[in-house]
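Records of this kind hold a single protein each, on a pair of labelled lines. Below, a sample record shows both lines together.
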Amino acid sequence: MLDKFEVLILKALQKNGRASTQELSGIVGLSQSPCWRRVKRLEDDGYISRYSAILDGKKLGLHALAHVQVSLLDHTESSIDIFQCFIEENEQVLECSSTTGDFDFILKVAASNPESLEQFIMHKLLRLGVVRTTTTIFILRQMKVSGALPVE
């Protein structure tokens, strides 16, 4: 169970993962030592799994984003392992979720342009030998991008 200080710490770190203990203590209303101990405990208990930077994809030349729905040929352990290994190793795949419905997975994929996305699908994803079909949904514009989770 999180107390009010821990909730405030988590909210503050989601906005600025580089906030110093001094900054955090001012935001949440604790002195630095208790604030640092709470952050350490939140890390140790797995509430904070990692820290990362959010990059601007367009500045990096990534102008094509898409959701790619994927159905596997079968659901054997071997097929799932091949697919999962590919997902874990491929940097173009930003997200992968197992889903209900007509498809097994939905991927969020980044590419420099539509042609490079086609290359990813045709020459990497489909050549795995375990994918039955894909459907691609291009993202025209992202109106909200947030990695922050609601913390109450």
User: Anything to note?
Assistant: The chain has two domains: 4-44, 64-139.
